[in-house]
Write the structure tokens for this entry.
Amino acid sequence: MNPAAVPTNPPVATPFFFYLLAAVMIIGGILVITRKNAVHSAMALITTLLAQAALYLMLYAPFVAGVQIILYAGGIMVLFLFVIMLISIERTQKERQFNKQWLVGIAAAAALGGLFIAVYTSTTAGRTLFPEGKLSFAEGENTQRIAGLLFDRATGTYMFAFEIASLLLLVAIIGAVVMAKKRI
Amino acid sequence: MHSMLDISTLHYLVLGAALFLLGVIGVLTRRNVVIVLMSIELILNAVNLNLVAFSRYWQGIHGTGALHGQVFAIFIITDAAAEAAVGLGILIAFFRNKETVNVDEVNLLKW
């Protein structure tokens, strides 16, 4: 529990891997929103998601990284590819890809980006918004502790929210079946 | 103590903001509904990256048991699964009725 304890296996070449993964994610994101073929977009998005899972590992979140790979890259993206297969994409590729308000959209995104820059560079009393705290190295109990927060009766802060999430998934299943049925 | 090369919370926040902006541009400018839904996934992932980075920051202050950001990220992944299922169900129903996947041709409720 001592945050100042010397780690047994300290991280290696963190800046190199961060900038590499960040570059992969940004390039993947740009490809997602610029490709004509929706399958190519899906492949770029899968690359982005996998690079993000690696970033989760760098942030000492192994359980979230596993969930990201299994659920996002393995589950949700397969669902996307399945739907792309069901709808015809040949005709869509010949059509206009961007709508008429694209200039307004980019202007709105640029305004939002300016807001982000203003917030992240703002200082109060000489300190930036998120000063770096003490570095700590997570012990190997990450998954166990997350399970404690989700399921345990004594420490489970999020037990009720977890049950509600199962209800949400049930509603989503019913909704998807009803919506995709031919005749209701 | 911290050199310019050290990766801080702010690095992750800036990366999350960049991904968020890419997703916003995709949602606002693309016509293909499938790619709009994928841009929404980009936005959700940007938020998840922020949450896990904040969880790391919080662990630096309150010890390694402070995992609330990671729990929130798991809930958001659950929501993304539900959203993708319902959204793609709507897309299939829409494609069956109108034979198109372009957002600007969705005008059934306009008068």
